[in-house]
Amino acid sequence: MKKLIGTALVATALFISTNVNAQDKPITFGIKAGMNLSNMTGDLKGDAKIGFNAGVTLDFAMTPDVYLMTGLQYSLEGTKDGDAKMNFSYLKLPVHVGYKMPVSENVKFVIHVGPYLAYAVDGKYKLGSVSVDAFNEDLENMFGFKYRRFDLGIGLGVGVEISKVYLDLGYDLGFINRINMEDNTWSIDNTGVSDPNGKNMNAYLTVGYKF
Fold first, then answer.
1. CA nearest neighbour of 153 among 176, 137, 130, 133
2. Which domain holds residue 133?
3. What is the C-alpha separation between 25 and 125, in angstroms, rounded?
4. Three-state DSSP class for 153?
5. What are the C-alpha distances in Å from 146 to residues 6, 39, 109, 138, 189?
6. How many angstroms separate the CA atoms of 120 and 99, rounded?
7. Per-residue confidence at 78, pLDDT binned at 50, 70, 90?
8. Which range has the worst mean pLDDT, 77-81, 92-96, 136-140?
9. Residue 29 included in any domain
10. In total, how many domains does the chain have?
11. Which residues, including other chains, have CB under 8 Å from residue 122's CB and lie 6 or more apart?
């Protein structure tokens, strides 16, 4: 029993010591900005559209190498087809688990994956000089549907941290159909599609600084 208690105490001490080392700076804040290359899937698929992103980041050290990586970002995404463009401005909240592998004293390779939540604060359908709100009756009167504001999806990325500067390359794929259609009569009559579907997809490249 004494040996068991002693072993448990040693294991506990090692665990605490490891986590104290990992938690010397348990939370790291940062800022980032970069470029998007977005499109949509299915019936909404068009040509890829260039946008941008900017935001703040938060890394929480769970172990010396494993982190909870989150933050809040503004992301301009959408798609285009000839003169027609869909522009969406999202607030996105990723909740990723990341692994940071030391390469040298000041360099770490980073891989991260996890879900994200998004809310479109603005959305416009543009055709030439005509611009209508993507979320109200204006678009619905034109095409028989409007767009959903909320999105949920999965994201993954790889990057490198060099001291306090980092570079991140990632991809987000939405799970939720962007089309909100209460009556599919218009779609069947005009396109022959009874259940139109389209989801977000976005590749991004960001540069950031961690304090």
1. 176
2. 25-210
3. 45
4. strand
5. 65, 17, 42, 8, 17
6. 30
7. very high
8. 136-140
9. yes
10. 1
11. 87, 88, 89
> What DSSP element (H or E) covers 206?
strand 200-210
- For residues 204 and 53, give the distance between their C-alpha atoms in angstroms, rounded to a whole number: 8
- Give the separation between CA 198 and CA 179, rounded to whole angstroms: 7
Is 14 domain-assigned?
no
Count of beta carbons in the 10 Å neighbourhood of residue 106: 11
Extract the tokens encoding 33: 């900005």
Please check whether residue 190 lies inside any domain of the structure: yes
* Global model pTM greater than 0.70: yes
User: Tokens in use for 3?
Assistant: 């040996």
- 161-166-167 Cα angle (round to 5): 110
- For the stretch 21-38, pLDDT in tens is 444 679 999 999 999 999
What residues contact residue 188 under an 8 Å CB cut-off, 6+ apart? 194
